[in-house]
Fold this sequence. Notes:
This is HIT domain-containing protein. The protein is an alpha+beta fold. The protein is 30% helix and 8% strand. It has a single domain (3-91), classed as HIT family, subunit A (2-Layer Sandwich). It is built from 3 helices and 2 strands. The mean pLDDT is 79.
Amino acid sequence: MATSEKEAALSAVPSDAPTIFDKIIKKEIPAIVVYEDDKAEERHVEILGYLLYVAKIVAKQQGLDDGFRVVINDGPKGCQSVYHLHIHLLGGRQMEWPPG
Length: 100
């Protein structure tokens, strides 16, 4: 992520304005959705385990048998810019360390 992108994410404030994810859910923006359901709500503590399990299923479906990375951005200093629970599944190339 470029410095200006990080600064933008750090300055992001949660709002009720539609996010890109809201627009995808409403089919206003085309997307290839590989998995979707209505279970993920912040009040469900157990959902994190479920999301990790689903990430493994999706990774296998996408041919990421050699490995993958799961990312959950949380809060402004975690570069969260979309304020609802979601995960990023990264794979298909060698990940570098340290991340970021």
